[in-house]
């Protein structure tokens, strides 16, 4: 039989989370962000659940082609725009909308020969200091784009750096509005955190919102809020089974480096999951794990193919018992992926995107 590790994508949860975001921004259209292969879930696996979105946003032309191959005829937005001149040819052929964030992209458009003018999203660097034109250069960039016959329509765009924290969005929103208040064009402003946390401030200011992590069931501002606090459901479960048992005595150690020492008799379950499956190696003793739907703790180091779990809360567990590394157990108990990410000193985005190719994936309810 195959190794028992399995990832399950929950289609109903994806649809639920998209509806939850739409409820937070009822007057805006919604981009479903599916970059990084839909945050590791797989574009083809999430498509049916997310096809009620008004558009899809991503980075890669190859992923845009995959969406068109799924017969999606609605808007697709390239969040980083085009990287070279020939990319614009594919944008024309696939009817892709694309971001413009630098002078070089405007220059490429100016030399592009096309029968179909492009819909572009002009990005402002309002404080994130990654991509975009500085506020004092933004209107000049808009004027240059507006003069190009290759451009049909210009939308206005920025990205918030601190929507998930105490700093908030006020300063960046003010910078954006000060420059764009009299410019025509639709606006797209809010990521997951801005859409959920700052709905009042964004009301009537964003024609499109761009939820990413919220669609995939993770809280954008964990640990201040959990996914459940925002009414989000887990969309990815990583599960396995116990494949071995060990009985420890006081002083016995577990795993590489003997990083865990038992202080008394302890029954240990060995689980078929490790960092080669995408489970974070930095998780330490105490990281939560569900065994038969009961909360237990991991002990010792994560190995390439195995983790070890303290079975004290589940004395009846044995070979073949269900283990949930994150997500929803068969008894509907949820182990939030955000908790595992916090234990590893990272964020849920990384865990989702790091799921290894050797892990089989199925689509469930």
Kindly state the mean pLDDT as a whole number? 97
CATH-derived architecture of the largest domain: Alpha-Beta Barrel
Total domain modules: 2
> Given the helix and strand composition, which structural class is it?
alpha/beta
Overall strand count: 19
- Give the helix level as a range of percent: 25-40%
CA gyration radius, whole angstroms: 23 Å
Total number of helices: 12
What is the CATH topology classification name of the largest domain? TIM Barrel
A few lines on this structure:
This protein is of the alpha/beta class. It has helices spanning 11-24, 35-39, 43-50, 61-69, 85-94, 103-111, 135-146, 170-180, 192-197, 199-202, 337-343, 348-353, and strands at 6-10, 29-33, 55-58, 76-78, 97-100, 118-123, 151-157, 187-190, 208-209, 236-248, 253-254, 260-261, 266-272, 288-291, 294-299, 306-310, 322-328, 334-335, 361-364.
List key phrases describing it:
365 residues, alpha/beta, TIM Barrel, Lyase, Ornithine Decarboxylase, Chain A, domain 1, 8-stranded parallel beta barrel, elongated
Description:
The chain has two domains: 11-216, Alpha-Beta Barrel (TIM Barrel), CATH 3.20.20; 236-364, Lyase, Ornithine Decarboxylase, Chain A, domain 1, CATH 2.40.37.10. Helices cover 28% and strands 25% of the residues. By secondary structure, it is an alpha/beta fold. An eight-stranded parallel beta barrel has the order 2-3-4-5-6-7-8-9, surrounded by four helices. The two termini are 24 Å apart. β14 (288-291) and β15 form a beta hairpin.
């Amino acid at each position: 039989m195959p190794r028992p590790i399995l990832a399950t994508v929950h289609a109903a949860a994806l649809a639920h989370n998209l509806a939850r975001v739409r409820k937070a921004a009822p007057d805006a259209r919604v981009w479903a962000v599916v970059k990084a292969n839909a945050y590791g879930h797989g574009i083809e696996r999430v498509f049916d659940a997310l096809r009620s979105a008004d558009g899809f946003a991503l980075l890669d032309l190859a992923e845009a082609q995959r969406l068109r191959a799924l017969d999606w005829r609605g808007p697709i937005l390239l969040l980083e725009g085009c990287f070279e001149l020939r990319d614009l040819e594919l944008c024309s052929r696939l009817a892709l909308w694309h971001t413009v964030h630098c002078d070089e992209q405007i220059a490429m458009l100016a030399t592009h020969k096309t029968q179909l003018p492009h819909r572009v999203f002009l990005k402002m660097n309002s404080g994130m200091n990654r991509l975009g034109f500085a506020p004092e250069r933004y209107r000049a960039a808009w004027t240059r784009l507006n003069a190009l016959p290759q451009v049909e329509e210009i939308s206005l765009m920025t990205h918030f750096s601190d929507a998930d924290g105490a700093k908030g969005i006020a300063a960046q929103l003010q910078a954006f509005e000060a420059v764009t208040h009299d410019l025509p064009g639709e606006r797209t402003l809010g990521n997951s955190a801005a859409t959920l946390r700052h709905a009042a401030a964004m009301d009537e200011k964003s024609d499109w919102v761009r939820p990413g992590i919220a669609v995939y069931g993770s809280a954008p501002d964990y640990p201040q809020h959990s996914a459940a606090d925002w009414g989000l459901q887990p969309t990815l479960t990583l599960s396995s089974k116990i494949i071995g048992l060990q009985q420890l005595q006081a002083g016995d150690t577990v795993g590489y480096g003997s990083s865990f020492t038992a202080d008394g008799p302890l029954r240990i379950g060995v689980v078929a999951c490790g960092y080669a499956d995408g489970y974070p190696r930095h998780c330490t003793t105490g990281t939560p794990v569900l065994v038969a739907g009961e909360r237990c703790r991991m002990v010792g180091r994560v190995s390439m193919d195995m983790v070890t779990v303290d079975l004290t809360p589940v004395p009846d567990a044995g070979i073949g018992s269900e283990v949930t590394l994150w997500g929803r157990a068969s008894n509907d108990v949820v182990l939030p992926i955000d908790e595992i990410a916090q234990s590893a000193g990272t964020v849920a985005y990384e865990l989702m995107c790091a799921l290894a190719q050797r892990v089989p994936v199925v689509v469930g309810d």
